Amino acid sequence: MGKYILIANDNEGILEILSTYVTKEDFFPIIAHDGEAALTKFVEFRPLLLLLNVMMPKKDGYTVFRDIRQSSNVPIIMLTAKGEDFEVKHV
Amino acid sequence: MFKGRIAFKLTAGFVVIVLISMLAIGIVFIQMFQQYTFDSREQTMLARAQSIAEVMAENSQNTGQIRGFAGSMHFLDTMAEAKVWITDSKGNPASVSGMGIGNGIGKGMGQNFGFGQSMGQGHTYNSEPLPPEAEKVIEEVLSGKESVSESFSSVYIEATLTVGVPIVDSDNRVIGSVLLHSPVTGITATVNKAVSILAISLLAALVLAIGLGIFYSLLFTRPLKAMNLTALEITQGNYSVRTGVNRKDELGQLGKSLDLLAAKLGYTINELFQEKGKLKDIIASISEGIVAFDTSLRLINVNSALSEIMDRPQPYLNEDVEKDLKDLEIQAQLTKVMEEKASSQVLKEWLGKKLMFTISPIIDNLGIVTGSVALVQDISKSERLEQLRRDFVANVSHEFRTPLTVIRGSLEAMVDGTVEKIEEIKRYHQRMLSETRGLERLVEDLLELSRLQSGTIKMNKETLHLPNVLKDVGRSLQTIAGKKGIKIEYLFQQEIPPFVGDYDRLRQLFVIFLDNAIKYSPKNTKVTVETSVVEAKMLSIIICDQGYGIAPAELAHIWDRFYKIDKSRNSRGTGLGLAIAKHLLELYDGLVTVQSELGKGTVVEIKLPMVLQ
């Protein structure tokens, strides 16, 4: 199994910055631009860690999280610009 | 029923008074009359008896005994207008014919008033016995006193008088007695006459009394009845009624007082009703539901708005209200509020609505809790608005955070040396610049939206030619259109009249729609802009593209703030364009319709009234 880290985000800038840091730490960044791509690439690469954006096209981060949790306990870090208290959801 | 009436009482009173006074007068009069008649008759008879006695006394001095008056007796009877007896000192009647004791004396007056008859008998011996009361009279007379006795004779059917006088000789010895017995003629007749006169005058007086009674009772009862009617009308709530009694006496005063009472009562009640009505109207007009309970949690009042808020049909019966509120478990809150004497608020879910119950105790001016009142507000709408506000704040913060994160991340990567290559650093700089421009646009759009929403936008009015404005817009968008090989076509089929409006605002409006058309179209397609006059006074601008189109489910949301159909394709937009466009259209009283089909394109039609309000 390769040292893959899946980065799912729709913002090019953030994708590039995160990939740079992942590469620097000797992991292989796997890029997904939307939720559906994230799920496909998760099944394909079986990454060690997921950096999952919440607001994404096609499938949002929460949905992707729930889908993955049904079959895997892989560590997932949710990334979001939503930081207000009332926006915190229990997934 | 009749007995209870004043007319009867008054008349009866008059009749009784008249009866009593007439009877009293009559009885006293008859008594006095009888007494007088008796007295004068008695005096006369006594005087006559005395005269006879004196003559007797003189004669006895001559003859020594009383006798030999047979001839004189008739004369005596006639003179005395009575029957005359003369007795000796032993009480034995003196013999008229001188035959001694035991024989009656001659009598002048005949029986049965027949004068002729009595004359006939006058000369015979009269064996007629002394009248029964004579014994007593004689006894008294013989003791030397004069005596009088009254009685009633069944023979004469008349009151009779018996008078006795002693015959005294010169030595003052009683040698006999003179007795006069006579009916008191005319008394009964007179009394009868008096009684009949009395009866007639009594009858007349009674008629008069009854008449007066009725007259007076009418005089009194008419205003009383009028006042009674007035009072009854007042109890019925008719305060405009008046007694109509116009008199100067006490009844008149009572009538006036009653009229005043009605007027004052009417005024006061009217004022009270108005006050109560006002309060009732106020409560009824309040759009929030109001429901009041007494201390035993029984419903005492509810306004009509409650049924609307609770989604219940009218009439919303009290039992249903109580049941619904029981289902909402409000009862415990009501009790708590009354115990603590302090208001409280509870939020309840009811048939998909959010209801806010503000419950307060009802405290009277003595400080005693008499119940509780609940104000029921449907806060679903304000909750929705609050949710929209939260979403907006969240969206704004998200829209700011993302570019800021990119800028910060880029800077960090350069600062900590993660990014070292020159070309990489250049790319990072460019990205930061682009994100900064995006932030700038976002701030501008937000401010614009805020200005539009607050209505503080100033419009410069000038006469414009709309096709020229659209061409200007097209020119400014030519660069981005050209990059994608998109051709903008203008179709102005007829002469477009001049239009009064604000050039900048109109330009802004068309840029938003035309920019979207270019942005959401694939390369090498065509965008057409068509202008025409429709419905006489409307300008129609149709922007038609051959773009990706919008799904029907998304169509309703395109005017929402920060709504982006596909974020990955439109990373440069703020998501505020159409929201701003909608506000701009409102400034012109314009209309917009959007028709779209996925994969085929979108048609936006804007209609503007030609006369700017």
Q: What is the terminal-to-terminal distance of chain A?
A: 28 Å
Number of helices of chain B: 15
Helical content class of chain A = 25-40%
CATH H-level homologous superfamily name of the largest domain in chain B: PAS domain
Q: What is CATH's topology name of the largest domain in chain B?
A: Beta-Lactamase
Please name the CATH architecture of chain A.
Answer: 3-Layer(aba) Sandwich
Helix percentage range of chain B: 40-55%
Order of helices and strands of chain A: EHEHEHE
Poorly predicted residue ranges of chain A? none
Strand order of the largest sheet of chain B: 6-5-9-8-7
- Mean pLDDT of chain B equals 79
Unreliable sequence segments of chain B: 95-127
Integer-rounded radius of gyration of chain B: 68 Å
The CATH topology of chain A is what? Answer: Rossmann fold
Structural class of chain A: alpha/beta
Number of domains of chain A: 1
Give a nutshell description of this structure.
With 91 residues, chain A is of the alpha/beta class. Chain A has helices spanning 12-24, 35-45, 61-69, and strands at 4-8, 28-32, 49-53, 76-79.
SSE layout and pairings?
The complex is a heterodimer of chains A (91) and B (613).
Chain A (H helix, E strand, L loop, with lengths): L3 E5 L3 H13 L3 E5 L2 H11 L3 E5 L7 H9 L6 E4 L12
Parallel strand pairs in A: 1-2, 1-3, 3-4
Chain B lengths: L5 H58 L6 H11 L2 E6 L26 H8 L11 H9 L4 E7 L4 E11 L5 E10 L3 H49 L14 H36 L3 E6 L4 E4 L2 H5 L8 H10 L3 H10 L3 E7 L2 E11 L5 E10 L1 H36 L6 H33 L7 E3 L1 H18 L3 E6 L6 E3 L1 H17 L6 E9 L3 E7 L7 H4 L21 H11 L3 E7 L3 E9 L4
Parallel strand pairs in B: 11-13
Antiparallel strand pairs in B: 1-4, 2-3, 3-4, 5-6, 5-9, 7-8, 8-9, 10-12, 13-14, 14-16, 15-16
Helix pairs in contact in B: 1-5, 5-6, 10-11, 11-15, 12-13, 13-15
